[in-house]
Specification:
With 143 residues, this protein is mainly alpha-helical. 29% of the residues lie in helices and 4% in strands. It has a two-stranded antiparallel sheet.
Length: 143
């Protein structure tokens, strides 16, 4: 729930109908922490599956933990609760898009109040952190 790898969302053009370029860049952190976490999880799943072997039929192919890094990256997906595409932070930070009140750096009158302002992935479902952010940012607009 706390990946180190960082993807990106970029505009392809000024045309609002052109879909953005979205690259989640799963399991690509240079130190390999994310893929190590996945491998550790797969080993644990293998142990649990072995304990339940009398209840299940044989599996096809090699065990998931034996796959190459490239094969693992090719199989990974998401439950689509991305965060951080408009991360809060100071204007001088090249990775930040909004300030602490959700105002977009350099764009007057535009604010963001959803999961995209969270600078890191919460270690739980994003619903409650997003509600908290939305309420906090709504209060700044009322003031």
């Amino acid at each position: 729930m706390k990946p180190v790898s960082r993807g990106h969302v970029r505009l392809r053009s000024a045309d609002p109908l052109e879909p953005p370029e979205i690259d989640p860049a799963f399991l690509t952190d240079p130190a390999g922490r994310d893929i190590a976490v996945v491998r550790a999880g797969l080993e644990k799943v293998g142990e649990l599956a072995a304990a339940m072997k009398p209840l299940a039929g044989p599996s096809d192919g090699p065990p998931a933990q034996a796959l190459s890094d490239a094969a693992l990256r090719g199989r990974v997906g998401t439950y689509w609760h991305p965060v951080g595409t408009c991360a809060m932070g100071p204007a001088q930070d090249p990775r930040s898009v909004t300030d602490g009140q959700g105002a977009v750096h350099g764009v007057a009158g535009l604010r963001v109040a959803d999961a995209s302002v969270l600078p890191t992935v919460p270690a739980a479902n994003t619903q409650l952190p997003v509600l908290a952010v939305a309420e906090m940012l709504a209060d700044t607009l009322r003031a």
